[in-house]
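Blinded run. Sample ID left blank on purpose so nobody reads anything into the name before looking at the predicted structure. Input follows.
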Amino acid sequence: MSAVALASGDAFAGERPAVNPWLIALTVTLATFMELLDTSIANVALPNIAGGLASGEDEATWVLTSYLVANAVVLPLSAWLSEIIGRKRYYLICVALFTGSSLLCGLAPSLGTLIFFRILQGIGGGGLAPVSQAILVDTFPLEKRASAFAIYGQAAVLGPALGPTLGGLITDAMSWRWVFFINIPVGLIALFFANQLVHDPPVMQERTALARRAGAKVDFMGILLIALGFGCLEVVLDKGQRDDWFESTSICGFFIISAISLLAAVWWERRQRDPVVDLSLLTERNFVLANIFYFLFGFVLIGATVLQPEMLQQLFGYTATQSGLSLSPGALLLAFLIPISTKFIPWAGAKNLIALGFGLLALSMWYYSTLDLDATFWQIVGPRLVLGVGLSFLFVPISSVAYSRLNKEKNNKASSLTNLFRNLGGSFGISFVTTMLARRGQYHQTVLAEHINNSDPTALGAFHHLVRTLEGAGLSAPAANLKAQALTAHALDTQVSILSFLDAFWLLGLVALIGIPLAFFVKPTAAPVKG
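Blinded prediction complete.
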């Protein structure tokens, strides 16, 4: 048997947990679902938060930005922190901090305090996903990981997808504060069962004990550089379009700090004996490709999840709840298909499923780009169903590829990087679609405006026909003329908006295509993965 197979499979046999591993999988998945749900659940509640705390909607967006920045800072540090503190102890701290800060967010008396508590919530939540994934990798032998990843995958993709639906329902039925309060019972349950069921494997205990005996040196410089780099990058991505990107002095400043910090972090970390982020992992081809896939996965999924509710509320007159419900059928189909998709890995191969998954993602985005303003609810749901099928062929194969050729002691640090790349993909995806909406809106505004003027006989004829129709409805000639101008301007704005949304979906389809050729560079996994 190969060294990789030994490290990932049979060598693991002596470290399997005494309790049922599926109980551990459900426990850590519950906390992960709660955290990932919070990345999108507050989005639809922003207007209510702004009104309830007497602030502007632009200021209220810091409720989202602060959480994402804290997440981005903690994600790459979580593996190092779990080794120093002990993985189980660190995990329990994260669950407790996330749950406690959720309570404080719901009780926040002002926007400033809410943003502060969201930072605490992001710090706690940032450690949950990577540590949960590392626990699963160490809990299950290689031949059972696909099924374990399927459970985790359901949480990873359902959380962000169901967030707008649940957020809309809660906000409409109760209050925005309950968007945060619902985390409390889930967090307490996860905390109780994690304390009872989760245990650090011997290799993890040895690393923690060794670090303590040696008086582990804290890499303050590495932590500072990484925190600055990813924190400032997240601000650039989240605020860039609002502030007109590099026309803004503050965005330029954040970008420069981010670039210098991340470059310096790479240089510094490569020279440390025990780095905060293990960059040597990026020398293994399958792991690098898996992180690219995670990035593209997050880019397309989160980008589309942001676009669809915004389009439906802005152009189709949907409420927050209705627009959120349009995402639910795809999410439910995905939850059903992920466990089934694991059965295809042994005979189809991970790389073929990944290529198929990204192909379906591209098709779903181009399906979106064919919609018009007369689309029914189920015509809008259709592309989301195709998206759900595509995603079901991605998460488990990508996770299998990521860990297929890594030694067991690298699993903890690997999980931090995979989750970081997925989160960065989502942040880049949101920034991309908001920028494309603005840029394509300017383009279509210019093009359509050229055709609606006194020199275009078709447009002029349509305008006069509208004026006569309004006069026939009882309006005076001046009033009919003004009304016709207003209706024409509204029609122009509506067409500009729908064309911009369709363009953004089409471009997301191009991004998804990148994953297809890259899939065929994946090396065969060390051992067949069975569901």
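Unblinding after everyone has recorded impressions. The chain is about 75% helix and 0% strand.
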